[in-house]
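User: My instructor asked us to take a sequence, write out its structure as tokens, and then describe one feature of it. I'm not sure where to start. Here is the sequence I was given:
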Amino acid sequence: MRFLFPVGCATCGVSLTDDPIPYFCSPCWNTITPLPSTRCSRCSYPFVSPAATSHTPHQVCWACRKWPPSFTKAWTLYPYVSPLREALHLFKYGRKVALADPLARLIINQFPACESFDMIIPVPLHIDRLREREFNQSLLLADRIGHHFGLRVSCTDLVRLHPSPQQTALRRKERLKNLRGVFAVPQPSSINGKRILLIDDVLTTGTTVNECAKVLRKAGSSDVYVLTLGRTMDNHQIPDRLLDQSHRRTHD
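Assistant: Let's start with the prediction itself. The structure tokens for your sequence are:
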């Protein structure tokens, strides 16, 4: 089949003779490396220097000190660089849902074992976006994580009432205003006192997951934790070896 219908790696273009990871060759996929452990203890924002936590392991970044988030803690696992960037783009916008399993496996491999959760809730899509895309990528990831760890997954306890434009081009005040009243909990009794793990694919500004956490806490939940597969950040925050690998794969 590969001889008749050749498929190239989405990152380097090499012809795939088999596909243990759909659309990617094993050498490229295996370069997906977790973020370093020197990060904000609240939002998981990477610190530039490892010395930032050498004497204060629970160091909090300036943003969390200035604007304490509504979630208890967030984990972001991998830098949003190639090949993870191409994989998530194919997954979300190319409708390559076969990537749900290997992407979920990346999360499972780095799943925080230090906490326990009562339920998993994916960040919801508005019904118009769901009709257009035909699936919620965060729900597909949450479903596989819940199945692996035996955790209940709910896609009805947090809903998006209104569509909202992309957050990346907006300033902080505009992002907050943009999401005000967007999310709701239809049946607060179903989450009352529950420790919730909120799942999303990529953390960019953090405003969306923070608004979700705020709504869940106001509805009566216990602690709300956030887990995202990738995180966008400036080049100076990405370890040099990962950035170099990404540049070489992009320009090869």
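For the description part of your assignment, you could build on this observation: The chain has a mean pLDDT of 87. Try explaining in your own words what that tells you about the chain.
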